[in-house]
Design a protein that fits this description.
The structure holds two protein chains of two kinds. Chain A is an alpha+beta fold. In chain A, 44% of the residues lie in helices and 26% in strands. The chains are: A alpha+beta, B alpha+beta. Chain A: Keywords: Chemotaxis, Hydrolase.
Chain lengths: 206, 164
Protein backbone atom coordinates (compact mmCIF):
# COMPACT_ATOMS: atom_id res chain seq x y z
CA UNK A 1 0.00 0.00 0.00
CA UNK A 2 2.87 2.31 0.81
CA UNK A 3 3.36 3.62 -2.73
CA UNK A 4 -0.29 4.69 -2.87
CA UNK A 5 -0.35 6.19 0.59
CA UNK A 6 2.39 8.54 -0.40
CA UNK A 7 0.67 9.90 -3.48
CA UNK A 8 1.13 13.63 -3.34
CA UNK A 9 -1.46 16.24 -4.16
CA UNK A 10 0.34 16.89 -7.42
CA UNK A 11 0.19 13.26 -8.45
CA UNK A 12 -3.51 13.08 -7.67
CA UNK A 13 -3.96 16.17 -9.85
CA UNK A 14 -2.21 14.40 -12.70
CA UNK A 15 -4.54 11.41 -12.35
CA UNK A 16 -7.51 13.75 -12.20
CA UNK A 17 -6.42 15.36 -15.45
CA UNK A 18 -6.16 11.92 -17.01
CA UNK A 19 -9.72 11.22 -15.91
CA UNK A 20 -10.80 14.57 -17.27
CA UNK A 21 -9.42 13.99 -20.72
CA UNK A 22 -10.75 10.45 -20.94
CA UNK A 23 -14.18 11.33 -19.68
CA UNK A 24 -14.36 14.43 -21.84
CA UNK A 25 -13.93 12.29 -24.90
CA UNK A 26 -16.43 9.76 -23.66
CA UNK A 27 -18.97 12.50 -22.94
CA UNK A 28 -18.54 13.79 -26.49
CA UNK A 29 -19.08 10.28 -27.82
CA UNK A 30 -22.21 9.86 -25.72
CA UNK A 31 -23.48 13.23 -26.82
CA UNK A 32 -23.02 12.24 -30.49
CA UNK A 33 -24.76 8.94 -29.89
CA UNK A 34 -27.76 10.53 -28.23
CA UNK A 35 -27.69 13.70 -30.30
CA UNK A 36 -28.02 15.94 -27.25
CA UNK A 37 -25.63 17.75 -24.94
CA UNK A 38 -24.08 15.64 -22.19
CA UNK A 39 -22.24 17.17 -19.26
CA UNK A 40 -19.83 15.61 -16.90
CA UNK A 41 -18.67 16.28 -13.38
CA UNK A 42 -15.12 17.18 -12.54
CA UNK A 43 -13.53 13.78 -11.98
CA UNK A 44 -12.83 12.59 -8.49
CA UNK A 45 -9.59 10.82 -7.83
CA UNK A 46 -9.30 9.20 -4.48
CA UNK A 47 -8.02 6.31 -2.50
CA UNK A 48 -11.29 4.69 -1.47
CA UNK A 49 -11.78 1.92 1.09
CA UNK A 50 -13.32 -1.15 -0.60
CA UNK A 51 -16.39 -0.83 1.60
CA UNK A 52 -17.20 2.63 0.31
CA UNK A 53 -16.76 2.18 -3.42
CA UNK A 54 -20.22 0.75 -3.97
CA UNK A 55 -21.66 3.60 -1.87
CA UNK A 56 -20.84 5.91 -4.77
CA UNK A 57 -23.53 4.24 -6.84
CA UNK A 58 -26.18 3.75 -4.19
CA UNK A 59 -24.78 1.00 -2.00
CA UNK A 60 -23.59 -2.54 -2.23
CA UNK A 61 -27.05 -4.03 -2.79
CA UNK A 62 -28.22 -1.44 -5.29
CA UNK A 63 -29.14 -3.18 -8.53
CA UNK A 64 -27.36 -1.53 -11.43
CA UNK A 65 -26.44 -2.10 -15.05
CA UNK A 66 -22.70 -2.54 -15.29
CA UNK A 67 -20.54 -2.71 -18.36
CA UNK A 68 -17.12 -4.06 -17.60
CA UNK A 69 -13.99 -4.03 -19.71
CA UNK A 70 -10.61 -5.33 -18.77
CA UNK A 71 -7.92 -2.91 -19.89
CA UNK A 72 -4.99 -4.71 -21.40
CA UNK A 73 -1.62 -3.40 -22.50
CA UNK A 74 1.12 -1.45 -20.78
CA UNK A 75 -1.05 -0.04 -18.00
CA UNK A 76 -3.66 -2.71 -17.27
CA UNK A 77 -6.69 -2.13 -15.11
CA UNK A 78 -10.43 -2.52 -14.82
CA UNK A 79 -12.96 -0.16 -16.33
CA UNK A 80 -16.60 -0.04 -15.27
CA UNK A 81 -19.42 2.01 -16.68
CA UNK A 82 -22.28 1.85 -14.21
CA UNK A 83 -25.75 3.24 -14.76
CA UNK A 84 -28.88 3.12 -12.67
CA UNK A 85 -31.71 1.23 -14.31
CA UNK A 86 -33.77 4.33 -14.86
CA UNK A 87 -30.91 5.89 -16.82
CA UNK A 88 -30.32 2.70 -18.77
CA UNK A 89 -33.96 2.64 -19.87
CA UNK A 90 -33.83 6.27 -20.83
CA UNK A 91 -30.64 5.75 -22.86
CA UNK A 92 -32.31 2.89 -24.72
CA UNK A 93 -35.35 5.03 -25.40
CA UNK A 94 -33.33 7.92 -26.72
CA UNK A 95 -30.72 6.00 -28.61
CA UNK A 96 -32.71 3.27 -30.22
CA UNK A 97 -36.24 4.58 -29.93
CA UNK A 98 -36.91 1.28 -28.17
CA UNK A 99 -40.03 0.69 -26.16
CA UNK A 100 -38.65 -0.57 -22.88
CA UNK A 101 -40.61 -2.40 -20.23
CA UNK A 102 -41.16 -0.69 -16.89
CA UNK A 103 -39.74 -3.47 -14.77
CA UNK A 104 -36.15 -4.60 -14.44
CA UNK A 105 -36.26 -7.02 -17.34
CA UNK A 106 -34.21 -6.47 -20.44
CA UNK A 107 -34.36 -8.21 -23.78
CA UNK A 108 -31.20 -9.61 -25.29
CA UNK A 109 -31.35 -6.79 -27.82
CA UNK A 110 -31.50 -4.17 -25.07
CA UNK A 111 -28.64 -5.72 -23.18
CA UNK A 112 -26.56 -5.84 -26.29
CA UNK A 113 -27.35 -2.19 -27.07
CA UNK A 114 -26.28 -1.17 -23.56
CA UNK A 115 -23.14 -3.20 -23.94
CA UNK A 116 -22.39 -1.34 -27.15
CA UNK A 117 -22.96 2.05 -25.51
CA UNK A 118 -20.50 1.05 -22.82
CA UNK A 119 -18.09 -0.19 -25.42
CA UNK A 120 -18.14 3.05 -27.40
CA UNK A 121 -17.72 5.19 -24.28
CA UNK A 122 -14.96 3.04 -22.87
CA UNK A 123 -13.20 2.94 -26.21
CA UNK A 124 -13.12 6.72 -26.51
CA UNK A 125 -12.12 7.05 -22.87
CA UNK A 126 -9.23 4.66 -23.27
CA UNK A 127 -7.97 5.81 -26.62
CA UNK A 128 -7.65 9.37 -25.34
CA UNK A 129 -5.74 8.14 -22.30
CA UNK A 130 -3.51 6.06 -24.51
CA UNK A 131 -2.80 9.04 -26.78
CA UNK A 132 -2.07 11.26 -23.83
CA UNK A 133 0.23 8.87 -22.01
CA UNK A 134 1.64 7.17 -25.06
CA UNK A 135 0.96 3.87 -23.37
CA UNK A 136 -0.85 1.07 -25.13
CA UNK A 137 -4.24 0.46 -23.53
CA UNK A 138 -6.66 -1.81 -25.28
CA UNK A 139 -10.13 -2.72 -24.03
CA UNK A 140 -11.19 -6.36 -23.88
CA UNK A 141 -14.53 -7.49 -25.23
CA UNK A 142 -17.15 -5.73 -23.07
CA UNK A 143 -19.41 -7.57 -20.66
CA UNK A 144 -22.73 -6.32 -19.45
CA UNK A 145 -24.66 -7.44 -16.42
CA UNK A 146 -27.56 -6.46 -14.21
CA UNK A 147 -26.59 -7.12 -10.63
CA UNK A 148 -25.76 -5.75 -7.20
CA UNK A 149 -23.20 -2.94 -7.35
CA UNK A 150 -21.11 -4.51 -4.60
CA UNK A 151 -20.81 -7.82 -6.40
CA UNK A 152 -19.87 -6.19 -9.67
CA UNK A 153 -17.35 -3.69 -8.35
CA UNK A 154 -15.65 -6.12 -5.99
CA UNK A 155 -14.64 -8.01 -9.10
CA UNK A 156 -12.41 -5.07 -10.00
CA UNK A 157 -10.82 -4.90 -6.57
CA UNK A 158 -9.24 -8.30 -6.21
CA UNK A 159 -5.91 -7.16 -7.58
CA UNK A 160 -5.85 -4.59 -4.82
CA UNK A 161 -6.75 -7.05 -2.12
CA UNK A 162 -3.18 -8.26 -1.75
CA UNK A 163 -1.97 -4.72 -1.07
CA UNK A 164 -4.49 -3.34 1.37
CA UNK A 165 -8.10 -2.39 1.79
CA UNK A 166 -8.40 0.63 -0.49
CA UNK A 167 -8.22 1.15 -4.24
CA UNK A 168 -7.36 4.15 -6.32
CA UNK A 169 -10.42 5.27 -8.19
CA UNK A 170 -10.72 7.67 -11.08
CA UNK A 171 -14.38 8.44 -11.16
CA UNK A 172 -16.54 10.64 -13.38
CA UNK A 173 -20.28 11.10 -13.51
CA UNK A 174 -22.20 12.01 -16.65
CA UNK A 175 -25.44 13.88 -16.63
CA UNK A 176 -27.66 15.73 -19.03
CA UNK A 177 -28.87 18.20 -16.47
CA UNK A 178 -31.39 15.77 -15.05
CA UNK A 179 -31.35 12.39 -13.37
CA UNK A 180 -32.45 10.83 -16.64
CA UNK A 181 -28.98 10.20 -17.89
CA UNK A 182 -26.58 9.50 -15.16
CA UNK A 183 -23.67 7.14 -15.38
CA UNK A 184 -20.45 6.54 -13.50
CA UNK A 185 -17.13 5.64 -14.97
CA UNK A 186 -14.76 3.84 -12.67
CA UNK A 187 -11.21 3.27 -13.81
CA UNK A 188 -9.37 1.09 -11.34
CA UNK A 189 -5.80 0.75 -12.59
CA UNK A 190 -3.92 -2.33 -11.44
CA UNK A 191 -1.49 -1.47 -8.65
CA UNK A 192 1.48 -2.04 -10.98
CA UNK A 193 0.17 0.49 -13.48
CA UNK A 194 0.75 3.65 -11.48
CA UNK A 195 4.47 3.80 -11.84
CA UNK A 196 4.06 3.32 -15.58
CA UNK A 197 1.43 6.02 -15.90
CA UNK A 198 3.49 8.50 -13.90
CA UNK A 199 6.65 7.68 -15.77
CA UNK A 200 4.85 8.11 -19.08
CA UNK A 201 3.71 11.56 -17.99
CA UNK A 202 7.15 12.54 -16.80
CA UNK A 203 6.14 12.73 -13.17
CA UNK A 204 9.10 11.74 -11.03
CA UNK A 205 8.37 9.12 -8.39
CA UNK A 206 10.41 9.24 -5.19
CA UNK B 1 -41.75 -11.63 16.76
CA UNK B 2 -39.28 -9.12 18.06
CA UNK B 3 -37.02 -7.28 15.69
CA UNK B 4 -33.95 -9.42 15.18
CA UNK B 5 -30.66 -7.70 15.70
CA UNK B 6 -28.67 -7.66 12.50
CA UNK B 7 -24.87 -7.55 12.55
CA UNK B 8 -23.37 -6.33 9.31
CA UNK B 9 -20.22 -7.96 8.02
CA UNK B 10 -18.31 -5.78 5.54
CA UNK B 11 -16.03 -6.80 2.74
CA UNK B 12 -12.89 -8.49 4.13
CA UNK B 13 -14.48 -8.51 7.55
CA UNK B 14 -15.74 -11.18 9.97
CA UNK B 15 -18.01 -11.33 12.98
CA UNK B 16 -20.00 -13.67 15.23
CA UNK B 17 -23.58 -13.71 16.45
CA UNK B 18 -25.48 -15.42 19.25
CA UNK B 19 -28.68 -15.08 21.27
CA UNK B 20 -30.92 -14.68 18.27
CA UNK B 21 -28.84 -12.14 16.42
CA UNK B 22 -28.28 -12.53 12.68
CA UNK B 23 -25.24 -11.87 10.51
CA UNK B 24 -25.50 -10.27 7.09
CA UNK B 25 -23.12 -9.49 4.27
CA UNK B 26 -24.17 -7.80 1.03
CA UNK B 27 -23.08 -7.89 -2.59
CA UNK B 28 -20.88 -10.98 -2.65
CA UNK B 29 -19.41 -11.39 -6.12
CA UNK B 30 -16.27 -13.42 -6.43
CA UNK B 31 -15.86 -13.14 -2.66
CA UNK B 32 -17.08 -16.05 -0.53
CA UNK B 33 -19.43 -15.66 2.40
CA UNK B 34 -18.24 -18.38 4.72
CA UNK B 35 -20.41 -19.23 7.71
CA UNK B 36 -19.94 -21.56 10.67
CA UNK B 37 -22.60 -22.62 13.14
CA UNK B 38 -22.76 -24.49 16.42
CA UNK B 39 -26.36 -25.57 16.94
CA UNK B 40 -25.89 -26.41 20.63
CA UNK B 41 -24.34 -23.12 21.70
CA UNK B 42 -26.41 -21.30 19.04
CA UNK B 43 -23.39 -19.31 17.98
CA UNK B 44 -22.84 -18.38 14.34
CA UNK B 45 -19.90 -16.83 12.54
CA UNK B 46 -19.49 -15.22 9.16
CA UNK B 47 -16.46 -14.11 7.13
CA UNK B 48 -16.55 -12.15 3.86
CA UNK B 49 -13.45 -13.71 2.28
CA UNK B 50 -11.92 -11.87 -0.64
CA UNK B 51 -8.85 -13.90 -1.57
CA UNK B 52 -7.80 -17.52 -1.15
CA UNK B 53 -4.41 -17.34 0.50
CA UNK B 54 -2.46 -14.86 2.64
CA UNK B 55 0.73 -16.14 1.02
CA UNK B 56 0.18 -13.67 -1.81
CA UNK B 57 -0.29 -10.73 0.56
CA UNK B 58 1.96 -7.75 -0.06
CA UNK B 59 0.56 -5.60 2.72
CA UNK B 60 2.60 -5.02 5.82
CA UNK B 61 -0.14 -5.86 8.31
CA UNK B 62 -2.41 -8.66 7.17
CA UNK B 63 -6.14 -8.28 7.60
CA UNK B 64 -6.93 -11.86 8.63
CA UNK B 65 -10.58 -11.65 7.56
CA UNK B 66 -9.62 -11.05 3.95
CA UNK B 67 -7.93 -14.38 3.23
CA UNK B 68 -9.56 -17.80 3.50
CA UNK B 69 -6.54 -19.38 5.22
CA UNK B 70 -6.39 -16.77 7.98
CA UNK B 71 -10.11 -15.94 8.31
CA UNK B 72 -11.21 -19.45 9.29
CA UNK B 73 -8.91 -19.91 12.31
CA UNK B 74 -9.79 -16.46 13.57
CA UNK B 75 -13.51 -17.06 13.12
CA UNK B 76 -13.29 -20.36 15.02
CA UNK B 77 -11.37 -18.69 17.84
CA UNK B 78 -13.93 -15.90 18.14
CA UNK B 79 -16.78 -18.42 18.21
CA UNK B 80 -15.05 -20.55 20.85
CA UNK B 81 -14.66 -17.48 23.04
CA UNK B 82 -18.43 -17.10 22.77
CA UNK B 83 -19.04 -20.66 23.94
CA UNK B 84 -19.05 -22.62 20.69
CA UNK B 85 -17.07 -25.83 20.20
CA UNK B 86 -15.14 -26.57 17.06
CA UNK B 87 -16.17 -30.24 17.10
CA UNK B 88 -19.83 -29.21 16.76
CA UNK B 89 -19.35 -26.65 14.02
CA UNK B 90 -20.83 -27.04 10.57
CA UNK B 91 -20.17 -24.80 7.58
CA UNK B 92 -22.33 -23.26 4.89
CA UNK B 93 -21.04 -20.98 2.19
CA UNK B 94 -22.18 -18.87 -0.71
CA UNK B 95 -20.60 -16.63 -3.34
CA UNK B 96 -17.46 -17.34 -5.32
CA UNK B 97 -19.10 -16.29 -8.56
CA UNK B 98 -17.29 -15.53 -11.75
CA UNK B 99 -19.03 -12.25 -12.49
CA UNK B 100 -17.76 -11.96 -16.04
CA UNK B 101 -17.01 -14.96 -18.17
CA UNK B 102 -13.59 -14.62 -19.71
CA UNK B 103 -12.37 -17.35 -21.93
CA UNK B 104 -8.88 -18.21 -20.80
CA UNK B 105 -7.32 -15.04 -19.44
CA UNK B 106 -5.25 -14.44 -16.35
CA UNK B 107 -5.67 -16.70 -13.36
CA UNK B 108 -6.40 -13.67 -11.21
CA UNK B 109 -9.73 -13.41 -13.04
CA UNK B 110 -10.74 -16.89 -11.81
CA UNK B 111 -10.69 -15.64 -8.25
CA UNK B 112 -14.23 -16.76 -7.38
CA UNK B 113 -13.76 -20.47 -8.11
CA UNK B 114 -10.34 -20.37 -6.43
CA UNK B 115 -11.86 -18.86 -3.29
CA UNK B 116 -14.40 -21.69 -3.13
CA UNK B 117 -11.77 -24.38 -3.74
CA UNK B 118 -9.54 -23.02 -0.98
CA UNK B 119 -12.36 -22.64 1.56
CA UNK B 120 -13.42 -26.23 0.84
CA UNK B 121 -9.89 -27.54 1.31
CA UNK B 122 -9.30 -25.67 4.56
CA UNK B 123 -12.62 -26.81 6.04
CA UNK B 124 -11.70 -30.39 5.16
CA UNK B 125 -8.33 -29.95 6.90
CA UNK B 126 -10.07 -28.63 9.99
CA UNK B 127 -12.58 -31.47 9.93
CA UNK B 128 -15.58 -29.15 9.66
CA UNK B 129 -18.34 -30.60 7.44
CA UNK B 130 -19.89 -28.43 4.74
CA UNK B 131 -23.62 -28.78 5.23
CA UNK B 132 -24.69 -26.79 2.20
CA UNK B 133 -23.39 -24.33 -0.33
CA UNK B 134 -24.59 -22.07 -3.10
CA UNK B 135 -21.47 -21.08 -4.98
CA UNK B 136 -20.30 -20.29 -8.48
CA UNK B 137 -22.44 -18.93 -11.28
CA UNK B 138 -22.08 -15.41 -12.61
CA UNK B 139 -24.23 -13.38 -10.24
CA UNK B 140 -23.99 -11.54 -6.95
CA UNK B 141 -25.50 -12.65 -3.65
CA UNK B 142 -26.50 -11.19 -0.30
CA UNK B 143 -26.56 -13.62 2.60
CA UNK B 144 -27.93 -13.73 6.13
CA UNK B 145 -27.22 -16.28 8.86
CA UNK B 146 -29.74 -16.70 11.67
CA UNK B 147 -28.02 -17.68 14.92
CA UNK B 148 -31.18 -19.25 16.35
CA UNK B 149 -31.65 -21.82 13.59
CA UNK B 150 -28.42 -21.77 11.61
CA UNK B 151 -30.44 -21.09 8.48
CA UNK B 152 -28.53 -19.31 5.74
CA UNK B 153 -30.73 -17.28 3.43
CA UNK B 154 -29.35 -16.18 0.10
CA UNK B 155 -30.76 -13.45 -2.07
CA UNK B 156 -29.79 -12.70 -5.66
CA UNK B 157 -31.20 -10.40 -8.31
CA UNK B 158 -31.91 -13.14 -10.84
CA UNK B 159 -32.89 -16.03 -8.59
CA UNK B 160 -34.75 -14.51 -5.67
CA UNK B 161 -34.39 -15.96 -2.17
CA UNK B 162 -33.05 -19.40 -1.31
CA UNK B 163 -32.67 -20.96 2.13
CA UNK B 164 -29.96 -23.40 3.08
Amino acid sequence: MSALDRLAEFELDVLKEIGNIGAGNAATALSLLLDKPVDMDVPRVSLVPFEEIAERVGGSEQVVIAIFLRVEGEAPGNLFFIVQQQSAKSMLNQLLAMETSEDDRYSEMEFSALCEIGNILAGSYLSSLADFTNLSMAPSVPFVTLDMAGAVLSYGLNQYGVMGDSALLIETAFLDGSEALKGHFFLIPDPESFAKIFRALGVPLE
Amino acid sequence: MTEQQLIKVGMADLNIASGGEALKTTGLGSCVGLTLYDSVAKVGGMAHVMLPSSEIARESRINAAKYADTALPQLIERMEEAGARKARMVAKMAGGAQMFAFSGGADSLRIGPRNVETCTAILADLGIPILAQDTGGNYGRTIELDSTSGTLSIRSVQHGIKEL
